[in-house]
Amino acid sequence: MNAIQAYTLELQGDEAYYWLYSRYLDWGYFDHPPMVALFIRLGDCIMHNEFGVRMLTVLASSASIYILWLILKKYAVDAVAFVLVVTGIFIFHIYGFTITPDVPLFFFTVLFYYVYQRYLEKDSYVLGLLLALIIACLLYSKYNGVLLIGFTVLANLKLVKRWSFWLIVLLAGALYLPHLLWQAHHGYPSINYHLFERSAHTYNFTDTFSYIPGQLLMAGPLIGWFLFYKAFTTRVKDAFIRCLMVNCVGTFVFFFISSSKGEVQPHWTFILFAPLVMLVLICFKQKGGRPKWLLPLALVNVSLILAVRIIIIIGFGFAKTYGHLKSYYGFKEWAQVVKQKAGNNYVVMSEGFQNPSKYDFYTNSLKCFAYDTRYYRRTQFDIWPMEDSLQHKRAFYLTYYPIKGLTIDSIKLAAGTWYTAWVDDVRTYQKVNFETTSYKMTASPGQKLSFDLTVTNPYPYPISFSSKGYLHPVVLEACLFKGDMLLNTQQADHAFNQINLNPGQNASYTFALTAPVEKGNFDLLFSLRTDPFPGSKNSRIISITVR
Fold first, then answer.
1. Which of 5, 231, 427, 543 has the fewest CB atoms within 10 Å, measured from its CB?
2. Do the strands 500-501 and 463-464 form a parallel or antiparallel pair, or are they unpaired?
3. Are residues 11 and 358 in contact, defined by beta-carbon separation less than 8 angstroms?
């Protein structure tokens, strides 16, 4: 089923984005570490199609389940119960064919438990070396891997008395050093995004309220509640079971608390489902076996899941119109239609990173650039050299909305409707970043504020903010947001347009801003705008409280 679904479904937007990762192999990326790029590159080298991109997902998901069985052999768990539990967990079906950073994370999580179980029984330097390598792979897969490491040590503090433990720490740290250096070289984009840009500023009860139902659904639409109950009531009889319990409960609680800062997507807890499975099956063994009523309920549970999967493969009914599912259909045709109109020219889109990535995948090119607007967020497109290549070129501009005086045509397909235009002499500054000394301040209504900005030229060529001699003038704007709504913009004076920078050179500029007259919490960011683009995101968010 995983192989069929991996072959028949088009790439979802995030998968196409990660495919682009594999075209620019590096030690890190804006959103994630690089393991997902390596997984995709290995399969894509064999065949450039959807199955090639997802090939290692299919193999890794099957291997993960088999390794779970090997771990549980020590506890002599029931094979039928193992099949009922594993096949009934919904999240295993989702990430059995989809390629995301969660796939290598889960595979190395299960591999970690397999080796760690033996390491508890035998303090071996060989096992220590294997654990160090696996831990590095965990961290190169997704930052969530640090939870597994932390909770495992917390569950057994006696580990620090082993010399091999410190060997594991040193070696894993050394292996992970290239990614840390990459972060430092690029200004720690992942830390800034995940800890500051992504977090909500105000508490939303819906985020917390939806967390537990989301986890129960991921565990199985009908049996999820029962699996969590059995896992959390397992008797801890040895160090390995204690490790499983602390990781399962700890990860669940960690993300529950995280919901106070913003939405927690259900799959973020994927690593807890490995200990969940093992705890449930160990609990069955401890209490004399599974309840008789579990068999019919589990069969109905997996039947529902399989029915949904078949509907998605066929593309029947709700599949082509519901939420994220609709992004699996129609974009292969869309990419070819756009390619016919754009020819070999660059394509620019200002609607996020997903559809530009799909265009690049289905045309097997690097010709589509995602313009990250002030209304969106930064992405890996702010780091890749695509923007450098399209400067002063003629580009095909694709938007969700018509632009007066510029739009010349529209594309209407099953995948959606887009409006098209040509932009001569493209001029953008998406990589430019303005830094200031403070990112949180308090002001009175209408107060005059002064921001000392430092701007550095990140490009391998000189840049100028002058508007003389250019087809498209550049404007620096301070954008004040209330939630997601742009309240107003304030422009820099003409002194800003006198700034010229060689590669790597920086300059200072003082921006005079008037605080909002109404009281409340506001977000401020600085944005460079050149027609016809809506303005990019050129600074971190600055929180302003007006009292």
1. 543
2. antiparallel
3. yes
Closest C-alpha among 179, 114, 181, 95 to residue 143: 179
- Confidence band, pLDDT 50/70/90 cuts, at residue 197: confident
Q: Is 277 left (phi over 0), alpha (psi -120 to 50) or beta?
A: alpha
- Cβ within 8 Å of residue 146, ≥6 positions away: 139
Any long-range contacts for 179-186 (C-beta under 8 Å, 24+ apart)?
Answer: 179/27, 179/28, 179/33, 179/34, 179/139, 179/140, 181/27, 182/26, 182/27, 182/28, 183/28, 186/28, 186/383
If you count them, how many residues does the chain have? 547
Q: What are the DSSP calls for 311-379, one per residue?
A: HHHHT-GGGGTSGGGGGGSSHHHHHHHHHHHHTTSEEEE-S-SHHHHHHHHHTTSS-EEE--BTTS---
Tokens of 3: 């192989």
Residues whose CB is less than 8 angstroms from the CB of residue 456 and which lie 6 or more positions away in sequence, other chains included: 432, 433, 501, 504, 505, 506
pLDDT digits (tens, 9 = 90+) for 423-475: 999 999 999 999 999 899 999 999 999 999 999 999 999 999 999 989 999 99
219-267: pLDDT as tens digits: 999 999 999 999 999 999 999 999 999 999 999 999 999 998 888 999 9
Q: For 341-383, what is each residue's pLDDT tens digit? A: 999 999 999 989 999 999 999 999 999 999 999 999 899 999 9
- Integer Cα distance of 112 and 333 in angstroms: 42
62-82 pLDDT tens trace: 999 999 999 999 999 999 999
Say if residues 349 and 356 touch (Cβ distance below 8 Å).
yes
Amino acid at 297: L
Distance (Å, rounded) from C-alpha 216 to C-alpha 210?
Answer: 10
Q: pLDDT tens-digit profile of 383-426?
A: 999 999 999 999 999 999 999 999 999 999 989 999 999 999 99
Amino acid type, 375: Y
459-to-31, 83, 386, 424 alpha-carbon distances in Å: 21, 55, 11, 21
Q: What is the mean pLDDT of the chain?
A: 95
- Cβ count within 10 A of residue 508: 9
Q: Are strands 346-349 and 395-399 parallel, antiparallel or unpaired?
A: parallel
Report the alpha-carbon distance of residue 369 to residue 385 in Å, rounded: 10
Contact between residue 329 and residue 415 where contact means Cβ atoms under 8 Å apart = yes
For residue 63, give both structure tokens: 């291997």
Three-state SS for 79?
helix
Can you state the percent helix, strand and coil of the chain, rounding each to 5? Answer: 50, 15, 30
